Amino acid sequence: MDNVPARRLLLLRHGQTTYNATRRMQGQMDTELSAEGVAQAERAAAHLGRRERDIHRIVSSDLRRAAETAEAAGRVLGISVERDSRLRETNLGDWQGRTHGEIDGGYPGQRATWRHDATWAPPGGETRVEVAARMRAVVDELLDDDSWPGSTVLLVAHGGAIAALTASLLDVPISHYTMFNGLRNTAWVELSAKIRPDGELGWYLGAFNAELFDEEIDR
């Protein structure tokens, strides 16, 4: 088992939407990329084509903003995109479609509670712990792919969902899940899975909120 190559995992957030630009909560609303979001997706795809040629599989949330970002990468890499509804963003329940200001006015103090407590859910929504569980199930199933060791899998999803998955994979205590936040549009997380001395698979963080260099954006 010591000779098993590492499995590398990239978690890419989708490009900008109009809702992102206006600080409106989307949750599982099926919004589209803005013009800037399309450009961001194309730049991210070009970067992946230059730097990440060992990607052999792309799995995306089925929501359009993520799927469109994933398809841009798939075109560059020549890989078909698989879609999985378990990679959707957090269900924000009654908050979906509302601005931060509207939520703070209608639900005083609750957004702060949600930001700091991974076991708390917006009215009618789901907790970060629940999001982490469904996201983690996708990764656990991908571990059965014998072609993964020594190569990279790209998951394209959403900021909150990616943060929850990252905390789960790294075995962060639930009380500290919210330490991962603020993932920017088309920023990504780099993780690798290796066999530990005890024979178990362990996940290791390489980067969080990684972004393109200015010289890449200017090309």
Describe this structure as you would to a colleague.
It comes from Corynebacterium xerosis. Keywords: Hydrolase. GO terms for molecular function: hydrolase activity. This is Histidine phosphatase family protein. InterPro entries: His_Pase_superF_clade-1, His_PPase_superfam, PG/BPGM_mutase_AS, PGM_Phosphatase. The chain is an alpha/beta fold and 219 residues long. Helices cover 36% and strands 18% of the residues. It contains 8 helices and 6 strands, in the order E-H-H-E-H-E-H-H-H-E-H-E-E-H. The chain has helices at residues 18-21, 35-51, 64-77, 100-106, 110-116, 128-142, 159-169, 214-217, and strands at 7-13, 55-60, 81-83, 152-157, 188-195, 201-210. The chain has a 6-stranded mixed β-sheet, sandwiched between helices. Strand 2 (55-60), helix 3 and strand 3 form a beta-alpha-beta unit. It is globular and about 55 Å long. It starts with 6 loop residues before the first strand and ends with a helix. The mean pLDDT is 94.
Q: Can you summarize this structure?
A:
The protein is an alpha/beta fold and 219 residues long. Helices cover 36% and strands 18% of the residues.
Separation of the first and last Cα atoms: 43 Å
Beta-strand proportion: 15-25%
Helix proportion: 25-40%
Shape: globular
Structural class, by secondary structure, is alpha/beta
Instruction: List segments where confidence is low: pLDDT < 50 over at least 5 consecutive residues.
Output: none
Number of β-strand runs: 6
Main β-sheet: number of strands, strand sense, barrel status?
6 strands, mixed
Strand order of the largest sheet: 3-2-4-1-5-6
Rg over alpha carbons? 17 Å
Mean pLDDT: 94
Order of helices and strands: EHHEHEHHHEHEEH
The total count of helices amounts to 8
Protein name: Histidine phosphatase family protein
GO molecular function, one term: hydrolase activity
InterPro entries: His_Pase_superF_clade-1, His_PPase_superfam, PG/BPGM_mutase_AS, PGM_Phosphatase
Pfam families: His_Phos_1 (PF00300)
